[in-house]
Amino acid sequence: MIINVERCTRGTTLSIGPRENPLELKSERNPNRPTIKIESIHISCSSDFYNERKDFAGFLVYSYKDQQDFRLNGHHYRTGYTLIKE
After folding, report:
1. How many H helices and E strands in the chain?
2. How do residues 38-56 score in pLDDT, each as one tens digit?
3. Residue numbers in the chain where pLDDT is lower than 50
4. pLDDT in the model for residue 54
């Protein structure tokens, strides 16, 4: 999937597909781990604004300690949460 970042702003939620058909990730190395279901990608309000002249890095949260909806360091995260920084 390619996301046009010029159309995305902080706080944007992008749908991956129909709710009844999310993207599913399953570990081949450890099949006992739970399947991760990604229904949408949310760009954090804490992300920096996009500028095509600058370099950016980011991360996409899949899970934390096998949880897909959790709190960490006072922040709420869910599978699909994305943070992009300059």
Report:
1. 0, 8
2. 888 888 888 888 888 999 9
3. 2
4. 93
Interacting residues of 50 by C-beta distance below 8 A, sequence separation 6+:
5, 6, 8, 56, 84
Cα–Cα distance between 12 and 82 in angstroms, integer? 10
Buried b or exposed e, range 46-59, using 16+ CB within 10 angstroms: ebeebeeeeeeeee
* 27 Cα distance to chain centroid: 18
- For the chain, the domains span 8-85
Question: Residue holding tokens 């058909």?
Answer: 21
Counted residue by residue, the chain has a size of: 86
pLDDT score recorded for residue 2: 47
Within 13 Å and on the Cβ side, how many CA atoms surround 68? Answer: 14
